Amino acid sequence: DPNFTSEVPGVQWHKRVQKWQVEINLKSDQKKIYGGLFTEKAAAEAKALEIQEKAGLQRQVKPVATLSELPEFHPKVPYPGVKWRQPEQQWHACCAVGGSTRNFRVRPKDHSEAELERSFQVAVAWKKKQEKEKEKSGKAVKSKVKPGRKQRK
Q: If DSSP codes are grouped into helix, strand and coil, which group holds residue 84?
């Protein structure tokens, strides 16, 4: 909901308590600074900016693009299991191997045609490699005989 979003890093709407929460992540030492809960968005944003300034963080308010503003891409030749994730702005490849699902994401450096195609091909290559591994593991499981057991004839 656009009314419950903030462009200031560290400010988010806390749904359960129906208030604005301020929590700043310090990437340098993996710690968080809790700034409190606020009923007013402006007060929460002011507190977040104050904490960032005290901590020496050089963060600016960054505009967030709405989903409709983000570009949507479709490959010329689609490949099953490789899709463009519009909200993430990256290619997502997914494959189930040996009972677990493996995910791989590739974000293009820019939105040029060549870079989009290159990153798509990287995702497809990963997917093909996983499919080969899946094929090998499937054959290997069928041919295995547990130690100490006789193979049926």
A: strand
Longest Cα–Cα distance of the chain, Å, equals 77
Domains of the chain in sequence order: 2-55 (1.20.5), 67-142 (1.20.5)
> Cβ atoms within 10 A of the Cβ of 133, count?
14
Whole-Å CA distances, 75 to 26, 80, 116: 38, 11, 9
Q: Is the dihedral of CA 60, 61, 67, 70 positive or negative?
A: negative
| pTM summary value | 0.50
Q: What is the chain's pLDDT, residue by residue, as a tens digit (153 residues)?
A: 457 788 888 899 998 999 999 998 877 777 888 999 999 999 999 999 998 888 877 666 566 667 677 777 788 888 999 999 888 889 999 999 888 899 999 999 988 889 999 999 999 999 999 999 988 887 544 434 455 555 555
In sequence order, the β-bridge partners of residue 40 are: none
Handedness of CA 9, 112, 85, 70 (dihedral sign): positive
Residue with tokens 């899946």: 134
